[in-house]
Amino acid sequence: MAYKNVLKYSDVTPRADYLNRRQLMGGAAGLAAGMALGPALGASKYSTDLKPNPLEDIASYNNFYEFGSAKGDPANNAHMLTIDPWSVEIDGMVDRPGSYGLEDILTKVTQEERIYRFRCVETWSMVVPWVGFELNQLLDLAGVQGAAKYVAFQTLYRPEEMPGQRSVSLEWPYREGLRLDEAMHPLTIMATGIYDEPMPKQNGAPLRLVVPWKYGYKSIKSIVRVTLTDKEPQTTWNMLQPNEYGFYSNVNPEVSHPRWSQAYEKPIGGGLFAKRQETLMFNGYADEVASLYDGMDLVVNH
């Protein structure tokens, strides 16, 4: 998968800042080689001007519980995942339900780079240069019906390749959901890569959701199913601890997690003595998304 006419990592940060791509990407190149891209644009108007984290940070420090609960487990274990071929089942309240092959999807959408802030509920943060396409393009391919109000997502369930799924720590497969207007918002993307490389397996290859104004666990990885529905879908962390993880999960410095404050965050990559930063409402995207929640109590609907 070559990202033509997309801002490259070398345009942002020196190549020496990143691990050797062969070590990071594993088998992702196999999928990439067979994929065709639709027209690609340069860096998006939605991108932040903050300096992105090195690929080494992004690919080595992350949560993907299907491969283990420690931050380094996904990078150590995700090489077992088979990602070629890949398809997404789109069903529910759509005009054209069915299995959509990823190669075919990518010929019908427009990919571009989005440099986004990323904020974990655990209070760490990064800046990630995703490559992907707006989720609304995929939903338009399937034809959303007028009665649909929510979009539900599901991660691959394959415990023989995803060792974390052999535990009962969470109810598998991993599930997430958005309100339809959130899903259709232009900031919400389906990411296929980081910098000018295909998505590392440990980061959710080959296709993951990215919703930059919400905590990171909302950005579900390795998606195999998308369902349009008129009912609020169940989501994995909300099912486990509803008092700690609400359906909306918008980044909000004024609403603490029951076990820690969300008023500050610590950027990853700043070293042992990196200073905390104040958390921004909606992770810095308030101008774009605050209107989605006009009149809503953001404490009750956390």
| CATH class descriptor | Alpha Beta
Elements, N to C (H/E)? HHHHEEHEEHEEHEEEEHEEH
Supply the number of structural domains: 1
The name of the CATH superfamily reads: Oxidoreductase, molybdopterin-binding domain
- Cα end-to-end separation: 38 Å
Gyration radius (Cα, Å) is: 18 Å
CATH T-level topology: Sulfite Oxidase, Chain A, domain 2
Please give the share of residues in helix: 10-25%
Fraction of residues in β-strands = 15-25%
Q: Structural class, from helix and strand content?
A: alpha+beta
**Poorly predicted residue ranges:** 1-41
Main beta-sheet annotation:
7 strands, mixed
> Which architecture per CATH?
Alpha-Beta Complex
Could you state the oligomeric state of the chains shown? single chain
Count of DSSP E strands?
12
**Mean pLDDT, rounded to whole units?**
89
Number of helices: 9
Task: Identify the notable features of this structure and list them briefly.
302 residues, alpha+beta, Sulfite Oxidase, Chain A, domain 2, seven-stranded mixed beta sheet, 16% helix
What does this structure look like?
The chain is 16% helix and 21% strand. It has nine helices and twelve strands. Strands 3, 4, 7, 8, 9, 11 and 12 form a seven-stranded mixed beta sheet that branches. It has a five-stranded mixed beta sheet with strand order 2-1-10-5-6. The radius of gyration is 18 Å and the shape is globular. Mean pLDDT is 89; it is low at 1-41.
Give a quick rundown of the structure.
The protein has helices spanning 21-25, 28-33, 55-60, 73-77, 102-106, 135-142, 180-184, 236-240, 286-289; strands at 87-92, 98-101, 112-119, 124-134, 150-155, 175-179, 189-194, 197-198, 208-210, 223-229, 264-267, 277-278.
